[in-house]
Amino acid sequence: MAAQRVVDEAFRLQLKGYGLTTAEILYRMPDHPSLLQSYLWQDYDVAPAFPVLRKFLDFWQRSLDGPLFEVRVSHGRLIRPAELALVDAEYRLH
Questions:
Q1: DSSP track, 33-51
Q2: CA–CA gap between residue 79 and residue 15 (Å, rounded)
Q3: Eight-class DSSP state of 22
Q4: Count of beta carbons in the 10 Å neighbourhood of residue 8
């Protein structure tokens, strides 16, 4: 019986260009609109369009009572293309 290889979904997304995205969402408290509450959201997304974050924010505005005040986004690609440097000579040490 052959062993089945399992590849992590987060790794697959990174190979497709997704990067780890963190958003700090400030929203007004429904019962006390003068107070702001903070919520941290994190998922893999594609900059600069951020379709996954936009889908979450659309859900927030449709379904939750706390109106959005501000969203700060940080994004970093964890897997980047390797740099390629051509070598003019090869030296072997024994």
A1: TT-EEEEEEEEEE-TTT-H
A2: 7
A3: E
A4: 8
Tokens of 75: 């994004």
pLDDT in tens, 23-45: 999 999 999 999 999 999 999 99
Is there a contact between 78 and 20 (Cβ–Cβ < 8 Å)? yes
Q: Is the pTM of this model over 0.85?
A: no
- Of the candidates 54, 38, 45, 40, the residue with the CA atom closest to the CA atom of residue 21: 45
Residue closest to 27 by CA, chosen among 51, 61, 1, 56: 61
Among the listed ranges 9-13, 66-70, 77-81, which one has the minimum average pLDDT value? 77-81
Main-chain dihedrals φ then ψ at residue 77, nearest 5 degrees? -80, 125
For range 64-86, the mean pLDDT: 80
Q: How far apart are CA 15 and CA 74, in angstroms?
A: 19
- CA dihedral of residues 81, 86, 87, 92 (deg, nearest 10): 40
